[in-house]
Amino acid sequence: MNGVTKRIRNWLEVRVGLDELLRSNLTDYRVPSNINLFHTLGAVAVVGYLIQVITGICLLIYYIPHADHAFRSVQEIMTRVPYGWLFRQMHVVGSNLLIAAVFVHMVTIFLMGNYKRPRELTWISGGLLMVITLCFGFSGYLLPWTQLSYWATTVATSIPTAFPVVGDFVSRLLRGGSSVTGITLTRFFAVHVSLLPPLFVFLMVVHIALIRRIGLSATPFGRSDEEKRPLTEFRKKLHPDGYPYYPYLLQKQALMGILYFVVMFLVISFAPTFFFPEEATVPADAFKTPESIRPEWYFLAPYQMLKIIPNKFLGISLQIILLAVFIFWPFLDTHKEKNIFKRPVLRGVFIVVMIAMVILMWWGRR
Amino acid sequence: MRRYVMLLGLLLVFPLTASGDYREEFEQGFLTKTWSGQQPEENFCIECHSSDKMKPEFLTLAEEWKASWHAQNGIACHDCHGGDPKDSSMSMSPHRGFVGKPSPAEVPEFCGKCHIGILKNYLESGNGKALRSTGKGPHCEVCHGSHNVQRANIDIINEQRCTKCHSYERAKVMKQALFLVEKKAGEIEDGIKALRRAGVYPEEQERSLFNTQAEFRTLFHTVDVNLVNERTDEFTRKLGAIEKDIQGTFIELRSQKNFSAFLMALFSIMGGVLFLIIRTPDK
To answer: Of the candidates B151, B129, B149, which has an alpha carbon nearest to the alpha carbon of residue B141?
Structure first.
């Protein structure tokens, strides 16, 4: 360590106790010895979110949130702004990958039963983070002001009208009028860049703080690690026989973070139009409905579900109930067994739900 | 647990009993069609011309128009014929600008309301002069048709059509003069389509091509081979510039892909190195 670095380190040490801070959070912080790659998916989601923030700020510099200029400004970003195409591609591909990473993260947490007590709040904060991530996708979809985004938003914002009494109000609130206009664009922009990010950061801080406070849960695939004791007092889950977070888990997280970048650049290099169908390169035209409109892949299953249920109010209510069941699942599943392989009914329900989702997505895409 | 299941059951029963008092527009949107598809507007011209009460000779017009280049570009009946397609009682009223079917001598003016440059050049041509002086002669409809107007292309000039009135010799020379420019324009059009597929919005190239083609096509309605030959170079140069622009965009897209592939390789190497140095904890 050279003199300057040493001086900076000493300066920080006497003020914030740097050594102790690093020791308690890196080497003394121990993780279960049977930890696996699935435990890195949360960190991958954080990496994905950081990419969205950085690329989003770069796009903000050139993007104009106005119906007359939004499409053109996005085209300028793609064609004239130095490396603008890279930031936009990273933002678009990254948003899809982030949703996929968050989804896989939640599925693995579910499979490992790590939502069980005392981690109900960790699951709920994670579920809400996923909902906000989807809201990011939904609000960001309109911003390029293309035919695809315009008409997809027109349909999506008409969905609340299926609700009696408040439906029209909610729809008008989202649109800022009776139809999707420049007002809708500025609303979605405001939500996308100023309302959702602080909410997301707040929930992420809560989520990570809860993980650190309660301690990581060991996977049931390895050694049994059940919290079967009566929950009468707070007891942090320590892993005295586990491994230090640094370097063992951190390097795995770094590896998965790098893999996330590799996948992102793989899509940008070899399938740059994967998330840009032809309608996504045509400016929004309120008087011309494009040939095919469909939402992003992550909304395809609920979209198809809405289509096949004749009573739309029932369809939307059902979806809200399913979302509530998903978020409050730890309170519904009070079974002590964590390992899903020892729970045939839950395993069966999980498989049916996954298959149903895949079928609905495939069906919705047609 | 039982309480939760009962609560869930109740929540599911509630929507089933709900009145479903939601907007008709939304219901129609979902039940009668997919989210995609053209939203048909009420149009009494189409409605009447498709009804059983219509005379057989007028019955096919709507279908012909639907297949036309005009329909694809949003040019509807009232744009040429006037009238009000949204008001059944006034749809054919002269007060709403209805002009009906033009006589052959009126056709050039009828089409020339929009195709202004072409009208000027046509009227200067032998065909136009003949129509003006005698009331007879080839007008727009003879070559382009009336309702099923297709996108103009060089094949409109053909022996079968031209020899209806005169020999094909002069028209053949004219077609040869047009060939190179039209061929190049076709290639550029393919390039623009490819750009769209590559996720680019080729607005500038499209506009330049449209303007160049429109200018060129007004020119050949003069049926003056010398004039076409004289200006072919000028149009070829203009089209060449558009083509170069398109090629430049493709080169740019390729370099973007390469740069992204480079970043992918860089991260792959980083991942590989990290994988190799990753430490496995001692058991």
So the answer is: B149
- Are residues B185 and B129 part of one domain? no
Residue A96 contacts residue A275 (beta carbons within 8 Å): yes
Domain extent at residue B215: 169-283
The residue among B101, B117, B149 that closes a domain is B101
Provide CB contacts within 8 A for B14, sequence distance 6+.
Answer: A317
In whole angstroms, what is the distance from residue A63 CA to residue A185 CA? Answer: 12
A302-354 pLDDT, tens per residue?
Answer: 988 988 888 888 888 899 999 999 999 999 998 888 888 888 999 999 999 99
Whose tokens are 């009914």? That residue is A345
Stated pTM of the model: 0.82
- Put simply, the answer to whether B14 touches A248 (Cβ < 8 Å) is no
- Residues making up chain A, counted from first to last: 366
| Number of domains chain B is built from | 3
The verdict on residue B109 lying in a domain is yes
Please provide the DSSP assignment of B162-225 as one string. Answer: HTTTS-SHHHHHHHHHHHHHHHHHHHHHHHHHHHHHTT---HHHHHHHHHHHHHHHHHHTT--H
Give which of B204, B257, B149, B71 is closest to A76, Cα–Cα: B204
Measured between beta carbons, which residues in chain A are less than 8 angstroms from residue B74? 288
Q: Which two tokens stand for residue A37?
A: 């790659």
ipTM of the complex: 0.91
8 Å CB contact of B20 and A313: yes
Q: What is the spatial distance between Cα B283 and Cα A242, in angstroms, rounded to a whole number?
A: 10
DSSP structure string for A12-47? HHHHH-HHHHHIIIIISSEE-TT--GGGGHHHHHHH
A325: contact with B, CB 8 A cutoff: yes
Angle B107-B113-B118 (CA atoms, 0-180°, nearest 5)? 75
CATH number at residue A52: 1.20.810.10
Closest CA to B196 of A210, A147, A253: A147
A294 contact B CB<8A: yes
